[in-house]
Input
Amino acid sequence: MSKLIRTILVMLLLMTVITGVVYPMVATGLAQALFPAQANGSLIVKDGKPVGSSLIGQSFTEPKYFWGRPSATTPMANNGVSSNGSNLGPTNPALTDAVKQRIDALRAADPGNNAPVPVDLVTASGSGLDPEISPAAAQYQVARVAKTRGLDVAQVQQLVTQATSSRQLGVLGEPRVNVLSLNLALDALQKH
Output
């Protein structure tokens, strides 16, 4: 019986070292060597300081910035610790009311814009942290951003075009625009 217990304890110790120390060190080392940006959180750096991640949305509310998708995280929007969707179905009156309020807010921020509001500007993503919007959602906001910043619409349009990422491998996903990167490009444009 003592031989069996000794064997069990040796295997427990061995597996703890392999799965708790060796494997994590190897995986971390490979990730740092092969994909350092992703392994470190896909951080976006401005003036030598991290300003956000390309993987987690940020709340932009000023009219001079492009706005991202609404966030369903609590207790604050885009809370990376509390990733979740709203779990509200399409027939839920709470979702209908929230969407109407968001449409009203978008219309109030840009009263001359009569274009249809893209759905991703009024509904949260499944994670509540989506950092990207559709090109249509960016296009919807171009005139407001250009007017607020005193820029030519064509300049802002060009930034949106440059910030638009295509489908991965040409077939996966949809074209998208990272809101933080686009807003940083806008700030950089105005510095010149």
Remarks:
- Residues 43 and 53 are 4 Å apart (CA to CA).
